[in-house]
Design goal:
Elements: H1 3-14, H2 34-46, H3 52-58, H4 64-74, E1 77-80, E2 83-86, H5 91-95
Antiparallel strand pairs: 1-2
Length: about 100
């Protein structure tokens, strides 16, 4: 963090700010919400041998890049032997 950013935060807290949560900003709202992530997860569980292109056909209002971000970052799936699986495997899963 730069010195200027530290000074900015100190000034804001001295002026009465009490938390570090992001404040509402102007601009286009994100299309990604918990409901959408749940729908994408349902589609993945229906067919684990999916591609991002197949998901794009199901959700044409969302770009392929955003779908990839949902799958990899929000749902924590990764491609393994042509199947998407959760990144966090337990010891039981690893022995199968």
């Amino acid at each position: 963090m730069t010195d200027g950013m530290v000074r900015k935060w100190v000034r804001q807290f001295n002026d009465g700010r009490t938390n570090v949560d992001d404040e509402a900003r102007s601009g286009r709202p994100s299309v990604v919400n918990d409901g959408l992530v749940a729908k994408v997860n349902e589609k993945i569980r229906e067919n684990r041998r999916f591609t991002i292109r197949m998901l794009f056909d199901e959700f044409p209002q969302i770009s392929k890049t955003v779908l990839h971000e949902i799958v990899t970052n929000r749902l924590n799936y990764r491609k393994l032997c042509s199947r998407w699986v959760p990144k966090m495997l337990t010891d039981v899963h690893k022995t199968k």
